């Protein structure tokens, strides 16, 4: 896996407070398996992010262990590449576009 994916997974764990309010107002969500089988979220990327999240939770204080924000920077910025996942229900709460700077996508 790329360093970008590792960085995205770690950053998302260190700033989950921004997603707490979003998740509280979110609909129940779509099962992770459904999103992965539809090809919108690569299963390998998801497995890697979950493993990274488990390691980070052991190493640093995590504000909300029930949420994971995953950004797959290997995808173009014109397609959905950010997911907010409820780890307790295994559901995708949000699937959105995200950019990370001018001329970088």
Task: Please tell me about this protein's structure.
There is one protein chain. By secondary structure, the protein is α+β, with helices and mostly antiparallel strands. It has one domain. Helices cover 41% and strands 17% of the residues. It has 4 helices and 4 strands. Strands 1-4-3-2 form a 4-stranded antiparallel β-sheet, with helices on both faces. Strand 3 and strand 4 (91-96) form a beta hairpin. Helix 1 (3-14) packs across helix 4 (43-59). The longest helix has 17 residues, at 43-59. It is globular, with a radius of gyration of 13 Å. The chain starts with a helix and ends in a 9-residue tail after the last strand.
Features:
4-stranded antiparallel β-sheet; alpha+beta; single chain; 41% helix; 105 residues
Summarize the structure.
The protein has one domain. Helix content is 41%, strand content 17%.
Layout of strands and helices, then pairs:
Blueprint: H1 3-14, H2 17-24, E1 30-31, H3 32-37, H4 43-59, E2 67-71, E3 82-86, E4 91-96
* Helicity range: 40-55%
Helix and strand string, N-terminal first? HHEHHEEE
Query: Mind summarizing the main beta sheet?
Result: 4 strands, antiparallel
How far apart are the first and last residues' alpha carbons, in Å?
18 Å
What is the average of the pLDDT values?
A: 75
Supply the helix-strand structural class: alpha+beta
- Using only C-alpha atoms, the radius of gyration works out to 13 Å
Q: Into how many domains do the coordinates divide?
A: 1
């Amino acid at each position: 896996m790329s360093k970008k994916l590792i960085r995205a997974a770690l950053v998302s764990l260190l700033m989950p407070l921004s997603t707490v309010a979003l998740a509280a107002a979110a609909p129940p969500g779509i099962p992770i398996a459904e999103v992965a089988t539809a090809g919108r979220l690569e299963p390998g990327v998801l497995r890697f992010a979950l493993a990274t999240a488990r390691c980070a939770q052991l190493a640093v204080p995590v504000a909300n262990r029930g949420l994971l924000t995953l950004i797959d920077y290997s995808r173009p910025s014109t397609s959905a590449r950010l997911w907010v996942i409820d780890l307790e229900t295994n559901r995708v709460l949000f699937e959105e576009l995200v950019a990370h700077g001018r001329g970088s996508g």
